[in-house]
Amino acid sequence: MNPPTPLLRPSPRAWAEALAVVAAALAAMGAVAALGLWAAGAAGLPSGAFPAVLAATVASAVGGTVEVTAGAGLLGRTGATLAAVPLSVTLAGALAAGAALLRPPRHGPPSGPAELPARAARATVLWLLALLGIARAGRHTFRVGLGSSLLDELGEVLGAQPTAGFRADVGTTLGWGLVWLLAVSAVAVCVSRRTPLPAPLMRLREAAGPAVRAVSGLLLGYVLLGLAVGLAVPAAHGHPARTAAVLLLGLPNLAWLALGVGLGGAWEGGVPGAGIGLPVPPALAAVLREGGGADATVDLASLSRHDGRAWVLVAVAAVALAAAGFLTARAFPAPLWRQGVRLAVGLAAGLWAAGAATGLSARYGLSLLGIGELGTFGQAVRLRALLPRLCGLGALWGLVAGVLGGLAARVVPGGGRGGRMRGTGPGRPGRG
């Protein structure tokens, strides 16, 4: 009789390890989100709304949307939607979850090939339960004063006392939260070189591991570079609290936009009125205001009209990609054509994910006494990547960087030579 699988009949220790994955992700996301919201001034929200705002931010970090509602009783109503991913919170949770997922057990026998998939499956069950609680907690409603006691009393009599609130959407939070954890698990499988895996996942790691490691390192490197630049902003221009809020909530959003623009990619978007209200690069804010609320194109040409230093992004992207191609070729020797193809595919996929995650959509409108249509929403803040252009240029840059990196690795002493990925195979884990 075959022994029971770890998934169907696990021990309490196995569930504790899965719980540790979920707890690590939520702790990291909660800490980063709380600090970012505090820096943004959310701690001063009325009616004790901060815990609900924190829960809604965590829900947004895994792809959930937040619905903002307001009303004036029987006389009027307002509505809004917000779809934006605070990628600093997302990245913190992904790193924590991935590290906990790959951590070997402290006690008991060494894990077998089926242990990692089983742990990921158990963590998924607990993760969805946790997200359900977070989405339910991410809602709050509070009354908005009219400015004087007389107006407040009149509003109560007429049933027109303004209220405002928000709620995290349960469906999108659970759906995209599941996709998020599956993506984190897949990346963890590809970047790990010690963890034993079943034969199909071993072959996946051998095929996709080099590209995933290279692109993940590139994206993380850009975040660290953006952090260094961001830390210099308060010293030069002031606004330390607002800058900290951007770093703790949206640093990868700006860093990966800079990477895409440096490679020739583009975003479209616009903001109504005076602007964004956050200390984003002045050139970016100026481009988004150009259309007066209509779509404007954010690319090297438009940014350089407001700041000639934008062309530095090309040089930074070229150096970063050259380093990624060279280091990948040194660590994972292969024929030149394979070096180019795997980095092209990996960079195109990575830029697609980064471009989609950096999108922003915030719509709001007003309907008062039946005048105006709530469903059409009066104004909007938008930012979306032009994904075909971004992915196509990413594939081209990746192909060139992979081939040139392979050539450089052969020239440099101790460089790579064509062959299989070192230390891997269908029957054994790779060396760290």
From TrEMBL:
UniProt-recorded name of the protein: Integral membrane protein
Transmembrane regions listed in the UniProt entry: 52-75, 82-100, 120-138, 174-194, 214-233, 245-267, 310-329, 341-366, 386-412
InterPro entries in the cross-refs: Streptophobe
Keyword Membrane: yes
The entry's keywords: Membrane, Transmembrane, Transmembrane helix
